[in-house]
Design brief:
disordered C terminus; 497 residues; globular; 2% strand; 21 helices
Length: 497
């Protein structure tokens, strides 16, 4: 196999899977089930995870990061971690979606293909060490998610969701691209390694500081950090629940990978400047997210504001130094993915395609009719609060510990205060599930979860429990890989050229 092809092996596998789904979809009879296309996408996603594991073995054997495509792609433990995380998210979402799009829609094949293409862009972002390659991956991911947000074409909220996401996403893309252009103007290159060298060897020009700030603004939109969060509640409310499960976790994971490389590897000399912005985004996200969620009656909008708050918690880890920040941020990303994807997949099973359960009142007494799903949703909500022995507890513990080691105790105090605020709206939904309805309410979906959906829910629950009971192993691996991942030395990398 060509070394350059090996550098993008997971992305190539996903691309082939998406193309095969698109080619096969018109060949199926109009009224036939599209489940075989879903299984084809599942197979492709699983093979991409296997390809990422093969890359991990190759990196371990080489003892250093591997470069490809003229040093624009870097295979290292960070890229492998995010490849596996993104593949896992997409895999469980595909499993839970097999019955969700069965019957009500005639274009389910497009859904499976778009998930594959979107994951391809996210993986490309996480392994790119060249800003233009990051931008290409960002666009591939964004275009897919714009379409997926409006996938329920017959509903006005879906069209509103897609349009708002597209328009505001275009502005964010413009900020990112302009920041890349300014970085090229300041350093003569769009390589993160060259950017670091130029900033280290000379007086940092003002244009370089502006470049980093512009890229932070663009990336802040993608992780729904305040004050770039305004799209999040409307998009989450109108998009299908399994799509929200994916877009609230996988694209953000890819962006966090880019931020770790850009800030700690590309612009460590500007730490004093970008750290102020990161802290501002973190504090604003925590307060706006939690206080906004307290005012919501719609459950999906409440969880949207919750995701804004969690972006703030994760960004507190960036206040630490390189090794602690990388480990804490990566762990938080994995923990948040397990519990948030699980929560939205439970909503998928409870509400069905038409999503007839929307407000907190609609969920009143649901536990009497769907006790297992309600218990599972309650477990994920408790993990989001940060109850001990769940993934959410150790995610916050490591993020706040990293900030403490960085010397920012005030940031940790604000984070703990906001965690207290979050208890109110999470517990409000949990109490509604187990309360007696005062009047006639909407009926939850009576359809039993399929075997595939059950596997997806079980995977999320096991990941949430596993990261809560045995977090040390993953954290140790992340800490060990951080220096190799983010200290790129031209003479210390195995070339795939």
């Amino acid at each position: 196999m060509s070394p350059n092809l090996f550098a993008l092996l997971p992305e190539i596998v996903l691309t082939i899977a998406g193309v095969l789904v698109m080619v096969a979809e018109p060949l199926l009879p109009a009224q036939s089930s599209r489940k075989p296309l879903g299984w084809l996408a599942i197979l492709g996603t699983a093979l991409s995870a296997v390809a990422a594991f093969i890359q991990h073995r190759a990196v371990d054997a080489a003892g250093a990061p591997m470069m490809g495509f003229y040093r624009t792609i870097q295979i290292d433990n960070l890229s492998v971690f995010f490849h596996l995380l993104i593949a896992s998210i997409v895999l469980v979402v595909l499993l839970a979606s097999l019955d969700y799009f069965e019957g009500p829609v005639s274009h389910a094949g497009e859904y499976y293909a778009l998930l594959c293409f979107g994951a391809t862009g996210m993986m490309l972002m996480s392994c790119s060490v060249e800003l233009l390659m990051v931008f290409i991956g960002l666009e591939i991911s964004s275009i897919s998610t714009y379409i997926l947000a409006g996938f329920r074409k017959g509903q006005a909220t879906a069209s509103e969701s897609a349009l708002k996401y597209f328009l505001l996403g275009s502005f964010a893309t413009a900020f990112t691209l302009y920041g890349i252009a300014l970085a090229f103007g300041a350093t003569g290159s769009t390589s993160i390694a060259v950017l670091a060298t130029m900033l280290h060897s000379s007086n940092t020009p003002l244009i370089a500081r502006l470049a980093v700030a512009m890229m932070l603004i663009g990336m802040g939109f993608k992780v729904s950090a305040a004050p770039f969060h305004v799209w999040t509640p409307d998009v989450y409310q109108g998009a299908p629940s399994p799509v929200v499960a994916m877009m609230s976790t996988a694209p953000k994971a890819a962006v966090y990978a880019v931020l770790l490389r850009l800030l700690f590897n590309g612009a460590p000399q500007l730490r004093g400047e970008w750290l102020v912005l990161i802290q501002f985004f973190a504090v604003l996200s925590m307060f706006i997210g939690n206080l906004g969620a307290l005012l919501q009656k719609d459950v999906k909008r409440m969880l949207a504001y919750s995701s804004i708050a969690h972006a703030g918690y994760l960004l507190t880890a960036f206040a630490s130094f390189q090794q602690d920040a990388v480990a804490a941020a990566c762990f938080y990303t994995a923990a948040y993915a397990s519990m948030n994807v699980g929560a939205f997949l439970v909503l998928t099973q409870l509400t069905g395609y038409n999503e007839n359960l929307r407000t907190l009142n609609d969920y009143t007494g649901v536990a009497r009719k769907r006790p297992l799903l309600s218990a599972l949703l309650g477990f994920f909500l408790l993990s989001m609060i940060g109850i001990p022995f769940t993934a959410g507890f150790f995610a916050k513990f490591y993020a706040f510990s990293a900030a403490l080691r960085g010397g920012f105790s005030w940031l940790v105090i604000l984070g703990l205060l906001n965690s207290g605020f979050a208890c109110f709206y999470y517990l409000r939904l949990l109490i509604a599930l187990y309360s007696s309805p005062a009047s006639e309410i909407a009926e939850p979906s009576s359809t039993r979860p399929s075997i595939a959906a059950t596997l997806a829910l079980a995977a999320c629950a096991l990941a949430t429990v596993g990261l809560g009971i045995m977090p040390g192993r993953l954290l140790h691996l992340l800490q060990r890989s951080a220096p190799i991942t983010l200290q790129e030395q031209p003479g210390n990398s195995a070339s795939l050229q």
